[in-house]
Design brief:
This protein has 184 residues and is mainly α. 99% of the residues lie in helices and 0% in strands.
Length: 184
């Protein structure tokens, strides 16, 4: 059991030794690079002394460029604030447009429902108009029949009135004849 516990530890120790060897190799490589960098630094220090005067000349230009850059940065901050403000306004406008679009969509849906209701009412009205048209035709037929019947009754009445008038005239004539006979 101890051997089972030692085996992973031995493997880990071996890994650590390999890692240590690799790190030591890298350290030596870095030392070598550091020595080269030190030598290069000494050469550069010599060059730096020569370039320091040139640097002093360009420092003024760089200071001016720095001031311009700072002014530009300040202006950029202002523009960023304006852009954020415009973005916020655009978001609000987009949300308002979305709400308005939803409202219009709901109104359109309600209008479609209302149009459908009116369409159904129009169908019902058309059916009602057709029924009234049929009733009007029936009434027109009845009125025509009544007018024809009235014409026939009127003709019969005219005939009866004519006969009645003739009969009355005959009765008067007979009464007058009786009166004349009774007086003679």
């Amino acid at each position: 059991m101890a051997q089972e516990q030692v085996a992973p530890l031995a493997a880990r120790v071996k890994e650590l030794e390999e890692e240590l060897t690799r790190v030591a190799g890298e350290r030596d490589a870095f030392r070598s690079q550091a020595e080269e960098a030190t030598a290069s630094g000494k050469v550069l220090a010599g060059q730096l002394g020569a370039e320091q005067s040139a640097h002093q000349l360009t420092k003024g230009t760089l200071d001016e460029a720095l001031m311009v850059a700072e002014a530009s940065r300040t202006e950029a901050v202002v523009w960023r604030g304006k852009a954020e403000e415009l973005g916020s306004e655009a978001s609000k406008a987009a949300e308002a447009a979305r709400v308005e679009a939803q409202h219009l969509k709901e109104k359109a849906k309600a209008s479609r429902v209302e149009a459908q209701r009116w369409k159904e009412k129009a169908k019902a009205s058309l059916a009602e108009a057709q029924r009234w048209g049929q009733k009007a035709e029936e009434l027109e037929r009845e009125v025509t029949q009544a007018a024809e019947a009235f014409g026939a009754v009127q003709a019969v009445l005219d005939t009866e009135i004519g006969e009645h008038d003739a009969l009355r005239s005959a009765v008067r004539t007979a009464c007058e004849a009786l009166e004349v006979e009774g007086s003679s």
